[in-house]
C-alpha cells in the first residue's frame, strides 16, 4: 500500500485561508508569509552552523590522530593528545545528537509551497533569430559576409531563382535551408536589376517572383519573431491554399517590385551613359585641360568666325584690333583646348601661325609646344570645328 501520511500536514498557501471580515486580509497574508520565510531562514542557518561545526571538528580530530602517529612526541605530549582525542570523540557524539534532533524537527515541519516539490531539471533554450548578430556588425563586415555568401551559394541561388512551381521551391528550400536569409534576398534583388539592364525582362520577372516568395517568408518570420528557416513551410501552406486576399497581396507586392526593378535599371543605364560620355569628353580635352567646344562657345564672335573659316589673315587682323590682354586670354584658352597649335613648324604655313602667336605673346613660341599633328590627336573635334590652324 502507498503511504499517504506525509501529505497529512501541509501548510496551505497564504491566500487560501478564510479570515474574519474585520481582519485586514492582505496584511494577515503578508505577515504569515513573512513568518514562514523567517522560520525557514532560521532552520537553514541552524543546518549551516551544524555542518560547519562538524567539518571543523572532523579536521581537528584528523590533526590529533596525525600527531599521535608521530614518533617525535614525548610521553607527556602523547598523553595530552590522547585526552584531547577523547574530548573530541565526546563532541562528535553531541554533533550526532544535534543532527538527529534537527532531522526530526525538519520532518515534523509542515510542508508548504516552497518545500512540497523540488525542481527536477532545468533547461533554457533561446530561439535566436539568424540575423540577431548582424545588428552589432559594421557595414564593412556585413558587406564582406554578403560577398562571401554570394560566392559560396551563387549556383544554388540561381537555381532557386529559376524555379516556377511552389512545390519545387518548397522542396529545394527544405534541402537548402541556409538559402532562407536576408543575404539570399539581397542577391536576388541585385540579379533582377542586372537582368533588366541586359533587357532580359521575362527572366527578370521569373526571378522577381522567387524574390517576393523569399521576402514573404522573411516577413512572416519577423512577425513570428523566429528564425526564417522555421517559417517557409508555413508560407507555402498558405500559398498553396490560394486564398484570394493573400494572393492579391502577394501579386500587388510582386508587381510593385518589378516596377521598382525597372526604374532602378533605367537609372543605372542613364548613369552608365553619363559615365561613358564623361570618359569620352575627357579624351577630347586639350593639353591645358579645356574642351574645344567649351572654348569655342566663349570666344568673341569675330574670333569664332576666324576659326570657323580657318582664315589666318582674318585672325591676325582681329587680334591686332583687340585689346592685347583680352587677346592673350582668348589665345591661351585656344592653346589649352587644342584649338590653336602655336608650334606647327612642320607645316608650310607654320610661319603665318607663328606670326599670330608672336604678335599676341610678344616673343617666339615655346619649343615644348605640341605640333599640329599632336594637337589633332589630342583634340579629335578640332578639324570639325574649323581649327586645323
Automatic annotation (TrEMBL):
Listed GO biological process terms: protein folding; protein stabilization
Record key words, sorted: Chaperone, Cytoplasm
Record keyword Hydrolase present: no
Region (Disordered): 1-26, 39-92, 342-389
Pfam family, one: CDC37_C
Residues covered by the Cdc37 C-terminal domain: 284-371
Biased composition (Basic and acidic residues): 1-12, 39-68, 76-92
Main localization category: cytoplasm
One Gene Ontology molecular-function label: heat shock protein binding
Gene3D superfamilies, alphabetized: 6.10.140.250, Cdc37, Hsp90 binding domain
Protein localization: Cytoplasm
Domain Cdc37 N-terminal: 1-124
Gene Ontology CC terms, in alphabetical order: cytoplasm
Bias type Acidic residues, positions: 350-361
Highest taxon of the lineage: Eukaryota
Signal sequence, start to end: none
Bias-annotated ranges (Low complexity): 363-375
Domain Cdc37 Hsp90 binding, chain residue ranges per copy: 122-280
Tagged with keyword Ribosomal protein: no
Family: Belongs to the CDC37 family.
Name of the protein in its database record: Hsp90 chaperone protein kinase-targeting subunit
Organism: Ciona intestinalis
Amino acid at each position: 500500500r502507498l503511504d499517504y501520511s506525509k501529505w497529512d500536514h501541509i501548510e496551505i498557501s497564504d491566500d487560501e485561508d478564510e479570515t474574519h471580515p474585520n481582519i485586514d486580509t492582505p496584511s494577515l497574508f503578508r505577515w504569515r508569509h513573512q513568518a514562514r520565510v523567517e522560520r525557514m531562514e532560521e532552520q537553514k542557518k541552524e543546518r549551516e552552523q551544524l555542518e560547519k561545526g562538524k567539518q571543523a571538528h572532523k579536521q581537528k580530530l584528523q590533526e590529533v590522530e596525525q600527531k599521535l602517529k608521530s614518533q617525535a612526541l614525548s610521553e607527556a605530549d602523547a598523553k595530552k593528545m590522547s585526552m584531547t582525542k577523547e574530548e573530541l570523540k565526546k563532541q562528535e557524539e553531541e554533533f550526532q545528537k544535534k543532527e538527529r534532533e534537527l532531522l526530526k524537527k525538519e520532518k515534523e515541519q509542515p510542508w508548504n509551497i516552497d518545500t512540497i516539490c523540488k525542481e527536477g531539471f532545468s533547461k533554457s533554450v533561446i530561439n535566436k533569430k539568424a540575423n540577431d548578430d548582424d545588428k552589432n556588425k559594421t557595414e564593412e563586415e556585413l558587406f564582406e559576409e554578403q560577398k562571401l555568401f554570394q560566392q559560396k551559394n551563387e549556383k544554388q541561388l540561381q537555381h532557386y531563382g529559376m524555379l516556377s512551381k511552389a512545390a519545387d521551391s518548397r522542396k529545394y528550400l527544405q534541402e537548402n535551408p541556409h538559402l532562407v536569409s536576408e543575404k539570399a534576398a539581397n542577391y536576388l534583388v541585385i540579379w533582377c536589376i542586372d537582368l533588366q539592364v541586359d533587357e532580359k525582362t521575362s527572366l527578370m520577372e521569373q526571378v522577381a517572383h522567387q524574390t517576393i516568395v523569399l521576402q514573404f517568408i522573411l516577413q512572416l518570420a519577423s512577425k513570428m519573431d523566429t528564425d526564417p528557416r522555421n517559417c517557409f513551410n508555413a508560407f507555402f501552406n498558405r500559398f498553396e491554399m490560394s486564398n484570394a486576399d493573400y494572393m492579391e497581396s502577394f501579386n500587388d507586392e510582386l508587381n510593385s517590385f518589378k516596377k521598382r526593378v525597372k526604374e532602378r535599371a533605367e537609372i543605372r543605364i542613364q548613369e552608365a551613359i553619363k559615365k561613358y560620355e564623361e570618359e569620352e569628353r575627357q579624351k577630347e580635352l586639350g593639353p591645358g585641360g579645356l574642351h574645344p567646344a567649351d572654348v569655342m562657345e566663349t570666344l568673341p564672335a569675330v574670333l569664332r568666325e576666324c576659326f570657323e573659316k580657318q582664315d589666318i589673315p582674318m585672325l591676325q587682323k582681329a587680334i591686332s584690333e583687340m585689346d592685347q590682354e583680352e587677346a592673350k586670354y582668348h589665345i591661351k584658352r585656344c592653346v589649352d583646348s587644342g584649338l590653336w597649335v602655336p608650334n606647327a613648324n612642320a607645316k608650310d604655313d607654320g610661319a603665318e601661325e607663328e606670326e599670330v602667336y608672336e604678335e599676341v605673346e610678344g616673343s617666339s613660341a615655346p619649343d615644348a609646344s605640341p605640333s599640329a599633328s599632336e594637337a589633332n590627336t589630342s583634340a579629335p573635334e578640332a578639324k570639325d570645328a574649323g581649327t586645323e590652324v
